[in-house]
Amino acid sequence: MSRGWWNALWIVLVCSSLACSKPEPPANNTAVADDATGGLKLAPPEPGDADDDSGKARVSDKSRKSRASAGIDDTNPFQDSAKNSPIEEGAPRKTLAGRWILVLTRPAQEQQFIDFNTGIVAVSAGKGADADGVLTAKWTAPTEVLPPAKLVSSEINNKSIHLTFDIDGGSKLDFQGTLKDGVVYGNALFGNCLPARLLPTKAETLDDFNVSPEPTDARELSQAFSKKDPKAALTALAKFVADHPQSPLSMMAWETSIMVSAIQDASPEDVEQLIADYDQAMAMWGSRLQQTLQGNIGIILAQTKYNPDFSLKFVATADKSITDESLKDLKVQLKTAREGILTVQALKYVELDDVDRAEKAFDFLTKLRGKNPFDPAVLYGLARYQEKAKQTDEAIAMYAELVSLPMLEAFLQRDWAQKTDAPKRDLPSATLAKLWEAKHGKTEGLDEFKDETYRKRVVAFADKPSTEAPAGNKLVLCELFTGSSCPPCVGADIATGALEVTYPKTQVIVLRYHQHIPGPDPLTNADGEDRFSNYYHGQGTPTVVLNGAPVNNVGGYLPNSPDIYRGLKNLVNQQLDSKATVQVGVNARVVDGTLQLVANVTGLDQLGDEAKDVRLRVVIAEDEVHFLARNGVRGHEMVVRRMVGGPAGVEPKDGKLSIKESIPLADLKSSLATYLKKYEEDEGIDFPAKPLDLKRLHVVAFVQNDESKEILQTNAIAVTASTSTASNAITPASGKATAKKTQTDN
Prior knowledge:
The chain is of the alpha+beta class. The protein has four domains: 42-216, no CATH class; 219-345, Serine Threonine Protein Phosphatase 5, Tetratricopeptide repeat, CATH 1.25.40; 351-457, no CATH class; 476-722, Immunoglobulin-like, CATH 2.60.40. 35% of the residues lie in helices and 23% in strands. The strands form five sheets. It has an eight-stranded antiparallel sheet. Strands 12-11-14-15 form a four-stranded mixed sheet, sandwiched between helices. Helix 4 (230-243) packs antiparallel against helix 5, helix 12 (392-404) crosses helix 14 and helix 16 crosses helix 18.
């Protein structure tokens, strides 16, 4: 069994964001593909997220020093000598009285698990005449693997305990457990619902201990994941759950077994028995976790495209079994899973000679397309029906969507590759070329048709244009930091493009700063890199900043773009009614190939002491660049080409704030070409193309408070050069733009 098994389960169950990481030598510059939630809500913080977004468990420098002085090596998570463990040894406790460590066992990164020792729960008898036999809980010695938490309620009944915490950032942690053999086994709802425990301790603080160790059985599970042969993997996973029946990692072992069995097309009877055994094994972790696993299995069956009849019946049963109100989001995911299973079923029906069934499948897929316009399986099913029905024009149009829209054909290839016994199919690109040539007698014109399809369909989900904002209102400046080789940037690229359809530039202005993340990007320049790295301290793409405030959870692929758009639109609408305290005037024109611009700010006297912190920045952006990027995006709008006066901007002088510049467009083009040439030389690559037309431009001026990062007002003006600035000096370079390899590259 390869890592693909584990990666698939990881994507399905535990990932919550998508982004490409900023390259940090000598690490590989690779994108991380996770599961998109589709919204822009602030995600529940993971353990270890208190100070950064790395997702890795961290401890304070003070704790590190304390453990180092005690001779504890943090690089070795398997130290289990008594002096280095906070877990109490001896006879198992028979009551809940005493101190307990709340341990959340969660994934930390690919194929790695961590026991997050979040803090100590002290359970003691209540005080007063009426307190006999009553136990109360107190939260003490919290560690830094969890954001600051406050215990807001506790219910302790005999051997059962229920704790509720408020977490900084607006999220909650809810733990439920029951005492068994001296350990409180239960589950915690914290983003996901996963196994959690209260482990006995006599320690009053965890400062001298490793609060984020790897579980001692994690390596054994990792070895089972690494089995290349599916039968060997299933044997190893079965051995793990048999040898470690009380391990919190057994949940992942069981679900991986079910996933592998489904991919291998095990019989429904075998899968059903495996699910029943899993449910029985997890009973010790509580009813809420048992309900969660039912939902997880339904999602796994949908993702693996297992036997549709069996999967539909199971999902219906699982939906009824989830009665805990806190798991309502899981029921929503099950609804999506059901649609996925029905899609698999419909795809089989469109291939049948049964006309009635095929038509019903086509009708179902048509309705589903209205809800999910970029689902590649749905589009393929519609195209296949139209192809078989000799509806050539309609089939060409549908196949063209699959081929021209970012990464949809690649998604199909990945899905088809999951089933080794799947029927052989032609790729949509091959079928499209065949149909086009059969209709037109030649392939000429097909590329133009694909470009037209892209422009027509990629932002078709956008709402109709908005009305003008009242005079004096603050414009919303949306800054997107993206990369043309960044797959999970596609969702944000398209979503912000949809914003430009909905809002005029008197309401919303979008600027795109391209980055060499995760690979070379010919639309990048030094000013955009500085803005991202030095001003906003960005680490990954995509990053969206609205009027100086970063937005969470914008990563995703094309199917995620409508949800990302809706989230951004809600945030934009919240800001459109704001009144501006300052106004920005901007004027620009091209005279004899020279861009002449002037920008000035009025109303500085209204800012008081804040005036000293504001800076005026002026950006030259190219309206649209036609360039087929590695991630499939064909049109790139409002691409930042230069920050006039530099990324630092201009500060007020004598109570005035203005910029006046004359920039020969040929010089601007030459400086961009020089930057790209130097990047090629430094990285040992060749860009296949260096788009530098610079004919249709916008000059965008904005005022920003460098202390708070708030953008106070923005304005823009369109400028058109009389002739294109493109010349033979910037013809596309030969070769392929591939990141220079390091010693860590595979």
